[in-house]
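SAMPLE LOG
Freezer: B-3
Tube label: C17
Construct: single chain, 477 aa
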Amino acid sequence: MSKTDILAKFRPLFAGTGGIDSWLSENAPDAIFGRLDTLGPSPLTQASLNQLLTFNHEAAVSPGFFRYYWLTAPSAHPYDVQRLEVFDSTWLTAPAITSIDHLRWGVYRLYLDGLLFFGNIRMAFRSLRELDEEELKRLFSSKRMAPETMVERGEPAFPLEDIAKDSRYLIAEMACKTYGESADSNDLQSALTSAYVKAGRGGSSRVTIKKLLDDVGEEYTNKQRELRFAATEILEEEIASEFDITNKVARMYAKFSDARDKALKNTRFYLSLVNDLDVYVATSMRQREDFRYMADFCDVVFGHADLRPLHIRYFDPTLSAAAGHEDKGLIECLMVKCAKVLVYCAGSGDTWGKDAEAAMALSLGKPVIFYCDATFRSRIFRDIHPLTRLIDFETGVAVGAIIASTPEEVSTLLYRIFTNRMEYEIEQPRAGYLRLRERLTGSCVRLQTSDEFLRETFWNYYHARRPDIKVATTLPR
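STRUCTURE (predicted):
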């Protein structure tokens, strides 16, 4: 193989950003390519590979590193290393690197691990190259999910209180603020009675609840949206007397009270399993239809046959309520912190609340799945929206959200995440710029910039710590 052929074999790797990422390039010594051309009859041992690395100013690797990346396919890795582009099982019984494809397989694995867990290929190589095989196994095993444990844990200890899908909207804050604590003394009762008396003076004895809410006095003008939301089910019903108002509001209050009591119980249930929470579902629900839609979405996604054996613990926002919006905020922050994965449902509009939850999860380095069933909005989230590319605050690794367009894709992604079967591919869209894409959806989940000034400044200062200044307590003799 010529130098050009060998370089073509390794695309899109070796982006030329320094260190190991520049080992094989147009400027690499011809002697390295000459040796690689003989891999068939003359396999590359660890000692030989180290000589080639050193020949182009790169550091050597340990025997354990060499074995881990080229001679084994560890089952306890965060993804299936045998599903990468090319793989030949004979490599696992060989004592050395036997072909260009074999060499590429190990290098590709290093790049995947570097982008996934270090955010920088050169930093990954520096951190890993001297580790022995057991240290590498322990390191990457710690980054895996534990599907065996998920299967063994069985069903949760407490069953959720079921709330009819058509009544779940009644657990929303707008309904809580409207109905308050009493069936006969709440904003809806007072607003309707006031408006009915006003309408009766005009000679009208029968009027719909919707019409009455359109004509509420100044006292309730700022609450019209909440009032209409709480009365969704009875908006088209007619009122013939104040007694009708009392009966209809009492009926709605009973449904509200039942739904809210169950939702409060469910919240205690969710809090009891935060240590074991798998998925947090982030969304915004402003209409009754939103609650129905989200309830159906959760049923489809988490009812998928592949997920059932894992006994997924997920937070369903249509089944939970809190004593007030402050408590609700605390609960949701705790759920995001404890969940292993966040699923973001775009819905009909974006809100600060769910955007903040997704941003928190990405900043914690968690997998985040954005579900959006509209083609244009999917493109916005996948290719344009800045929220879908954030930084893991602890490691500095750039973390991207996965954009799914169907509930079935969400289920598949969750299954792959929890069973360590995610599939990735690396691309280099422009010189020096590396992207790691999730294969099912094409979403960019990691990246390494080609901007040298940005890259060097970022990594030189991201982990910077001011050294402690120790003051001598005794004078030297």
